[in-house]
Amino acid sequence: MVRLITHNMLACHVKNCTKDNFPLSFSEVELVIRPTEENLDFLKRFLPKLDWSALVHTARSLGDESLPEEMPEISSWTEEQLKALHHVLMEIHVEEGNMICKGCGHVYPISNGIPNMLLAEHEVGR
Hints:
Layout: E1 2-3, H1 4-7, E2 25-33, H2 40-46, H3 52-61, H4 79-91, E3 92-100, E4 107-111, E5 114-115
Antiparallel strand pairs: 1-3, 2-3, 3-4, 4-5
């Protein structure tokens, strides 16, 4: 399933695509909200691995405005802020649609929650 926690780590790997290849933009998406058990300690540990500005931009492009523009200091996160982060990272699922590279325009289709990240042979760098 394409959740934003996964999306935050995906970049375009088309040969010679090295500029504006992260984050991939969503288009024509079908979203599903799937409540999941909260693990706020996991989120605190995962925070340093996130590209915060990419996460906020992507969440807002999908209609979620709950995250602050700037990431708060890890020690100052409130339970309410962690719950909002949990919702964005773990409960928003992209079931159908596309992820598009802003750099080269390559389209990665999403079907049944699974992104197709495979490239044609001519697109693969050697």
